[in-house]
Amino acid sequence: MKSIAVLLTVFNRKEKTLQCLGNLYKQLPIQGYSVDIYLTNDGCTDGTPEAIAQKFPEVEIIHSKGNLFWNRGMYTAWKEATKRKEYDYYLWLNDDTFIYPDSISRLLNDSISVKDEAIICGATCSEKDGKPTYGGRNNNGIIPPNGSLQICQHFNGNVVLIPRYVYQRIGNLDYTYSHALGDFDYGLRAGKLGIKSYQSKEYIGTCEQHNSLAKWCNSSYPLKERIRVFHSPLGGHPKENFYFERKHYGVFPACLHYFTIHLRLFIPQIWEKRK
Fold it and tell me: What is the helix (H) or strand (E) element at residue 198, kind and residue range?
């Protein structure tokens, strides 16, 4: 029997988290596979871990103080899973992503079709209008599924299947990133090692897009507030952006974008006029 570790990190989205886990459990058991779930509680104060423990007592909850955010929370869950055993697959899952009843089986079949030697990124769509929201990406943005596996350069980490072969070669997420960029970074790291990333053949669930303009580049907020948010893990986080750009694209693009991101902070109207 092969094994799967499902990895999540959560913070104060109790109802969504319970729905996400409920959708996951509807698929279990999967014939021929054992499934363990590792979930980082990143300092929830809304009763999320207590509700999970009551409704889904099998979930392994790792508690933290609320300073991990998405990337480091996922890193922590993944690290805990690998302490327990060497799994055949690792499945990243966002708590605001609601997968369809046969999604895991479809992701596994996609992985098997490429000999379990590639990353399979699940495509999600909006429940409201069916438009693509998250998944595999290239230079033109999100890649809509077309019924076949499609190569992608990087991907959103909403639902991603990592076979053991890939984990053994790449390892965990890069702990340098606090919230964003860790998923994009992982796909680019894979590409440098010759490991392919594929978009799933079909949508495997729903997740609504976060379309609101970030506060740090929104001219309706005062500069002092924009600066405060800018340096937070949920803001522009220029140091992490510079690290990412330099790592994957070189020093010159990193320096250029470091300048432009600060320009956007101080004069966001330039970008607003371009829309």
Answer: strand 197-206
